[in-house]
Every structure is written in C-alpha cells, then in structure tokens.
Amino acid sequence: MTRDDTARQMTGLLYDAFPISCGYDERRMLFGSGIRVTPSSMVVSFLGSSTSMACNRSSLQWSLELVDEYCRLRLPGKYLQAFDAAYVPASAGGNVESGE
C-alpha cells in the first residue's frame, strides 16, 4: 500500500491481482474505494452498490468488504485457496473456499 496524505488516498494491490484505491473526499466528507482500471478511471460500484459513503468506521468497513467480496468472486477458488494459505494466518480463520 502507498499513501498520499495530501490527497488523503491510499493505493495498493488486492490479492496480487486488483489495483485498488481508497480515499477521503474532505469537501464532501465521503469515503470511497474502487478498482483502478486506467490511471484516470476506476470502478466504484460493485454488485449494485456504491462504495462512496459517509466517513465512519462501519461505513468504511462495509465499503472495503464490498470490494473484497467482488474481487474474491472474480478469482478462481484454487487461486483463493493458495492465496489464503500463503498470506492469511490460520488463527485469523481466512476465507478459504473450495477449489474449482
């Protein structure tokens, strides 16, 4: 993850596959997250829901979980099993899914 405090934005790579950005719009007091498609565009609506919302703990968590769920649905089960085995500690319970 990289962070830009002046723009109040963070970027990173989710599941080693999806370039993700999230940030805070101070003027509108909204938090948003999305998958970067090109340097100037991103997907911010997933499964019929927008990730732009009020900036509070539960809204931030819901927004990030929405992006996470969307990404996991787009990746094969075998990849997710290998990813979870490599990066998710057993004590965290991981989201290991059956292979395809």
Q: How are the elements arranged and paired?
A:
Blueprint: E1 2-4, E2 9-14, E3 18-25, E4 30-38, E5 41-43, E6 45-46, E7 49-50, E8 53-54, H1 57-74, H2 77-87
Antiparallel strand pairs: 1-2, 2-3, 3-4, 4-5, 4-8, 6-7
How would you portray this structure in words?
- This protein is α+β, with helices and mostly antiparallel strands and 100 residues long.
- It has one domain (2-85).
- The chain contains 2 helices and 8 strands, in the order E-E-E-E-E-E-E-E-H-H.
**Low-pLDDT regions:** 96-100
Q: How many strand segments?
A: 8
Distance between the termini: 30 Å
* Overall geometric form: globular
Overall pLDDT: 83
SSE order in H/E notation? EEEEEEEEHH
The amount of beta strand, in percent, is: 35-45%
Instruction: State the secondary-structure class.
Output: alpha+beta
The value of Rg in angstroms is 14 Å
Q: Could you say how many structural domains there are in total?
A: 1
* Largest β sheet strand count, sense and barrel closure: 6 strands, antiparallel
Q: List the total number of helices.
A: 2
Q: In which range does the helix fraction lie?
A: 25-40%
